[in-house]
Write a structure and sequence with these properties.
The complex is a heterodimer of chains A (about 800) and B (about 290).
Chain A: E1 5-11, H1 15-26, E2 31-34, H2 42-45, E3 52-53, E4 71-72, H3 73-86, E5 91-92, E6 97-103, E7 106-111, E8 116-124, E9 131-132, E10 145-146, E11 159-163, H4 167-176, E12 181-185, H5 196-208, E13 211-214, E14 218-223, E15 232-238, E16 241-247, E17 249-252, E18 256-257, H6 260-265, E19 292-294, H7 304-318, H8 328-334, H9 344-354, H10 356-359, H11 363-372, E20 374-378, E21 383-385, E22 394-399, E23 402-407, E24 410-414, E25 419-420, H12 422-427, E26 434-437, E27 441-446, H13 448-457, H14 459-478, H15 484-492, E28 495-499, E29 504-506, E30 514-520, E31 522-529, E32 532-540, E33 544-545, H16 547-553, E34 559-562, E35 566-572, H17 573-582, H18 586-603, H19 608-620, E36 629-633, H20 642-649, E37 664-665, E38 668-669, E39 691-694, E40 699-702, H21 711-715, E41 722-724, H22 733-739, E42 761-763, H23 776-780, E43 786-789, H24 794-801
Parallel strand pairs in A: 1-2, 1-8, 2-5, 8-19, 10-17, 11-12, 11-17, 12-13
Antiparallel strand pairs in A: 3-4, 6-7, 7-8, 9-18, 14-15, 15-16, 20-27, 21-26, 22-25, 22-27, 23-24, 23-26, 28-35, 29-34, 30-33, 30-35, 31-32, 31-34, 36-38, 36-43, 37-38, 39-40, 41-42
Helix pairs in contact in A: 1-7, 4-5, 13-14, 14-15, 19-24
Chain B: H1 12-30, H2 42-59, H3 61-64, H4 75-97, H5 105-137, H6 143-160, H7 166-177, H8 185-189, E1 196-199, E2 202-205, H9 210-221, H10 225-285
Antiparallel strand pairs in B: 1-2
The chains are: A alpha+beta (about 800), B mainly alpha (about 290).
Chain lengths: ~800, ~290
């Protein structure tokens, strides 16, 4: 079947694709919008009913022929439907693209249904969400086969088979089991991929008969029902032959197919194998294939408004028009304090030229980075940040210089093109030095999250940062008086090592051939005590382990294991000798540290086993990455719950602490409450960057600009974040005491939700940063059971208890 | 690091209270009033004022501990001060009386105060010993955890007895259904067990699951082969259940004991304050 040659074909009817197609329509350009599903905006269709969608970034103006404003999912979808109809946009639904051939001017787009479409230019707006993997057997298109479970309570007294062995499959099976007869089909003989909690629950459910599991089984086909009670017969290939189950419903939870393979088959290249990598694009969104453009999440812009703006802009670029990007005015405003008068594009180019770490970043990515960054013109002598500060943004020097105060008497000057502040970026810990502005100092401040995104997608940036980090670390930690040039050869031989949680870095008795500087993460040091491995101490990032062997002992005196994902820099014997030669006083300093450590170990040896067990337990709870955690001594706790009530009372009625939940070992109870991790998992994917670390206590807190997306709740491995409507703090104490009015102190007022369009926002412990006096939980505990501490204090827990 | 309310600030309030007590005793011993020592001498008035102020301040703990947003200091510090200074009140108030006791509102006030203090001392004992004891009893689990375990065992027992003889089934299922945990105040405080079981068509007491267990043990000795094995498993599982229930009952007993003194301590405090007002009023109006 021959179609016309369209000027523009847009693939994917998400916000980006809709905007591009509608704009082409309003300009009268011949176009087609191909959408694989039967409706527009597949990902947003899948949002739960009534979900409130935000229009971030708030400051960015919208440039699109179709509307978009923050509101309920249904309203937004309706607005888009109306918008594309109004512009007579040419949309083809159920038109999944399977391959693309040809070249600019004549791309042939092959569809799954066998048809083909030809276009001169291609715009890809297919997003990154992926499609759920289907069962892939005969009969799997039946209406009772689904790949999602919105509300397990909806189904009762049904026979349901869940296919899959991951967390989603397990959670669905367990949720359905109380009211239905549930089977779970696992291709393998165990649930290897599941979270430990889920694994325990499903095995218990299988053991008690609540859920029946087919191990080593795959689906064969789905047949018509043999009676009128059920919807169909699910035929399975088990290890002992075929088995059949008459079912009402089949739920497939087999993961999603990310579109990367498909995108690569179109000819688009990705810079590396990182699953988060985005393809290289020009400033006009063009990929390495001429005439093929990428917009939206696939190009690294996951927010709706950005995608819509890009849809508008890309059509303009295709037509050869030069439009100023939507962010132009915003960036121009950032450049106002600069002492020279140049065009935005010129300044951006100058920045990239002058600053090597940004040299290899493409222009689009650099604009994106600049949108998140700030430019500061700093007066000479002003402190940019101080040692032990808790902020963690990254600075590059655009003009002038700065002075880095490494120690009291040592200041290092750093000039144009250099960067500073990267130590906290990488290790997540406090600032390791004070930085003061020098002459004519202009710096660019980029937030940590933005830099991390850049590091993940641009290899060159990672390399430059790593190399500088290594040589600076060596200088700072070992040889502060030695000039950097003398350390370069040692730096070149330094290795970067990655360790998974629990992985052994070296074992007791091994040959001691290297020392490790912990770049990020943390480790435990354990020794053999009468045949049992006992944890003796905990070492956080920015410290060294393994140097004792290089100082003289030759074999390792202890085993060192990573507690959380850890990165180290290691120096071998030869490099270490070179270092000792170039760094006066280093050997003596290290010997002193070794002596102190030995003394500590001797002192605590008596309690070593108990202490070690407790330490192992605490590390097992992930407290190795905590910076401040609430621990409850069950020998003092009278279960009065004042800690929870205080938390609620100081936080508008919603407690962020769940005292009862959580495990206990040797009298120490770890309640469910935020631990303010060093490298917070919650921070990793916050679209409005609402989660920050700051203040005097280094607490991790969620700001007011939370949009309620729930990413942090999902990413937190300790379940300390909950989504909650705003509540009102309880009313006056005396009114309650004397007249019985209102709720008792510490209980949320039943006034409940504030406002009609209220959304659930993420809440978690913020260490009472807005309260004078510090954490309310500790202050409210009458017996002293509640105490907050950081992992360095754990070793004292047992000895003090005696 | 956890420091208990007794060791708070290196026992600062202990020393303060000790100072107060020793000071009062010394001054009382040195004092030589013209009349016999009583609440009306200058020392009597002084001690009386201190005592009254202490009582009001001690009662204020009830307000302070619920002041989550802007209280002064920490609640632990207040409790530490409360406990030590409250104890010292015993000495201060007794010296204030000059040991003049009679059947009147003054001695009545004094007696009420003693009741409050003694119940408070029991509270200190309870708060310092019960948490540890309960945690050890439950082996680092929560009461909810243990209830869950019992629930699981109950399903397990249902499964195990599915093919048993009808009398065994009856005993096990009725023992489970008729298990009583907790109850009113006295039931909890004395660890009473009103569980019952149906044996041979009769409802009998199953205190501590004993009756049911005995029936099962007897059954065990009268069966053989496969049936013996299955009854054996039932016995073992049932015994585990019994032990868990014993733990639950003991935990509830300790929990209620650790709470009941407060149910006495607070109302008597209010009675004390009322009596105190009457005592002070009568002293000045009918002097």
């Amino acid at each position: 079947m021959i179609d016309n040659i369209y000027d523009i074909a847009v693939i994917g009817a998400g916000p980006g694709g809709l905007s591009a197609a509608a704009h082409a329509a309003e300009l009268g350009v011949s176009h087609v919008l191909l959408e694989s599903s039967p409706k527009i905006a597949n990902t947003i269709q899948k949002y739960q009913k009534g979900k409130h969608v935000m229009a971030e970034p708030g400051i960015l103006p919208l440039r699109s022929p179709i509307e978009f404003d923050a509101g309920k999912r249904e309203a937004i979808l309706e607005g888009w439907e109306q918008g594309i109809a109004h512009h007579n946009t040419n949309v083809r639904y159920s038109a999944e693209v399977s391959k693309i051939g040809g070249e600019k001017g004549a791309f042939t787009i092959g569809l799954v249904n066998g048809e083909s479409v030809t276009a001169k230019h291609l715009i890809l707006g297919i997003g990154m969400q992926g499609n759920p993997r289907q069962l892939g057997v005969a009969g799997d298109q039946a209406s009772f086969v689904q790949y999602q479970l919105d509300d397990p309570g909806e189904y009762k007294d049904e026979v349901i088979v869940v296919v899959g062995a991951g967390d989603a499959a397990i959670e669905n099976a367990l949720a359905l089991a109380p009211n239905n007869k549930v089977y779970i089909v696992n291709r393998k003989d165990e649930f290897a991929r599941a979270k430990e909690g889920n694994l325990n629950l499903i095995m218990a459910a299988i053991e008690s008969g609540e859920v029946e599991c087919f191990f080593g089984t795959t689906p064969a086909r789905i047949d018509s029902p043999t009676d009128d009670q059920h919807k169909g017969v699910f035929v399975l290939n088990t290890s002992t032959g075929e088995a059949t189950v008459s079912v009402h419903r089949i739920i497939g939870r087999l993961g999603a197919i990310a579109p990367r393979g498909l995108v690569e088959s179109f000819g688009i290249e990705f810079p590396n194998d990182d699953p988060n990598a985005i393809p290289a694009l020009s400033s006009q969104y063009e990929s390495n294939v001429p005439g093929m453009y990428v917009i939206g999440a696939l190009g690294g812009y996951p927010l709706i408004k950005q995608a819509m703006n890009q849809g508008y802009e890309v059509v303009e670029y295709v037509l050869g028009n030069k439009v100023k990007p939507a962010d132009h005015n915003l960036i121009a405003a950032k450049f106002l304090p600069l002492p020279f008068d140049l065009e935005v594009d010129q300044v951006l180019e100058m920045m990239q030229q002058r600053i090597p770490v940004f040299e290899h970043v493409n222009a689009l990515q650099f604009r994106e980075l600049m949108l998140d960054s700030d430019v500061h013109v700093v007066k000479k002598g002003r402190v940019i940040f101080s040692k032990h500060d808790y902020d963690n943004s990254f600075y590059t020097i655009f003009e002038g210089n700065v002075e880095i105060e490494v120690s009291e008497d040592i200041r290092i000057r750093s000039g144009v093109g250099n960067f500073f502040g990267e130590m906290s970026l990488i290790s997540g810990r406090r600032r390791s030095a004070t930085v003061i502005a020098g002459d004519e100092c202009i710096v660019i401040e980029t937030p940590r999250r933005t830099m991390n995104k850049l590091i993940a997608s641009v290899d060159a940036v990672k390399r430059v940062l790593d190399q500088t980090f290594i040589v600076r670390t060596i200088q700072q930690k070992f040889a502060p008086e030695t000039p950097i040039e003398d350390l370069m050869s040692i730096a070149e031989k330094t290795q970067i090592n990655q360790y998974a949680p629990g992985e052994v870095i070296f074992s007791q008795g091994d040959v001691g051939d290297s020392l490790h500087f912990i770049r990020n993460g943390s480790v435990t040091v354990s020794g053999d005590l009468d045949g049992k491995e006992v944890v003796m101490s905990y070492v956080p990032a920015n410290q060294t382990v393994g140097e004792m062997a290089l100082l003289g002992n030759t074999t390792r005196g202890a085993t060192v294991k990573a507690t959380v994902k850890t990165e180290t820099l290691s120096l071998d014997v030869e490099s270490f000798q070179m270092l000792l030669a170039r760094a006066p006083g280093l050997k003596e300093r290290m010997q002193q540290v070794a002596e102190t450590r030995s003394r500590q170990n001797i002192d605590s040896q008596f309690y070593a086993e108990e202490e070690g067990d407790l330490l192992s337990f605490l590390m097992g709870q992930g407290l190795g990455e905590a910076t401040d955690v609430l621990l409850i001594d069950e020998g003092l706790c009278v279960a009065c719950d004042f800690c929870e009530q205080a938390c609620a009372a100081t936080h508008d009625g919603t407690s962020r602490l769940n005292r009862k939940a959580g495990p206990t070992f040797a009298h120490i109870h770890v309640p469910t409450s935020c631990r303010h991790c060093e490298d917070p998992s919650c921070m990793k994917d916050c679209p409005p960057d609402a989660i920050q670390r700051g203040g005097a206590g280094g607490e991790v807190f969620i700001g007011d600009n939370c949009i309620g997306c729930g990413n942090c709740e999902q990413n937190c491995p300790y379940d300390v974040i909950q989504m909650s409507y705003e509540t009102e703090a309880p009313s006056s104490y005396w009114k309650w005491m004397l007249f019985g009015f209102g709720e008792k102190p510490g209980k949320a007022s039943s006034a409940g939700v504030v406002g009609e369009n209220a959304i659930k926002k993420a809440v978690k412990c913020d260490m009472c940063m807005d309260q004078s006096g510090g954490p309310a939980c500790v202050r409210a505990c009458p017996t002293g059971a509640a105490a907050r501490m950081s992992p360095e204090d754990f070793v004292d827990l047992v000895s003090v208890m005696h | 690091m956890h420091t208990s309310f007794l060791a708070h600030a290196k026992g600062r309030y202990f020393w303060l209270a000790a100072l107060l007590m020793v000071g009062s005793i010394v001054i009382y011993a040195m004092d030589n009033p013209t009349e016999a020592p009583n609440g009306g001498t200058w020392l009597g008035y002084a001690l009386g004022t201190i005592g009254a102020l202490l009582i009001v301040w001690l009662a204020y703990l009830g307000r302070r501990k619920r002041n989550f947003t802007h209280g002064w200091g920490t609640v632990k510090g207040w409790v530490s001060a409360h406990v030590y200074l409250g104890s010292s009140l015993l000495v201060v108030a007794t010296l204030h009386t000059g040991f003049q006791f009679d059947w009147n509102v003054h001695t009545f006030t004094f007696v009420l105060m003693c009741l409050v203090i003694f119940s408070g001392l029991f509270g200190v004992f309870a708060y310092r010993t019960y948490p540890s004891a309960r945690n050890d009893l439950k082996k680092n689990q929560t009461l909810d955890d243990i209830f869950l375990k019992v629930e699981k065992i109950d399903s397990e027992l249902a499964r195990l007895t599915a093919d048993s003889s009808s009398d065994t089934k009856m005993v096990v299922s009725s023992a489970i259904e008729r298990t009583v945990i907790g109850g009113g105040y006295r039931d909890q405080l004395f660890g009473r067990d009103h569980s019952s079981v149906v044996v041979d068509g009769n409802v009998v007491s199953n205190k501590g699951q004993q009756q049911a267990l005995e029936f099962l043990v007897e059954k065990l000795s009268r069966t053989e082969g496969k049936e013996n094995q299955s009854v054996g498993e039932v016995v073992r599982t049932f015994n585990t259940r019994k032990q868990l229930l014993d733990i639950i009952r003991e935990d509830i007993r300790m929990q209620s004991t650790a709470q009941v003194w407060l149910l006495f301590h607070i109302p008597v405090t209010f009675a004390l304050i009322a009596a105190l007002i009457a005592h002070i009023f009568s002293v000045f109006v009918y002097r």
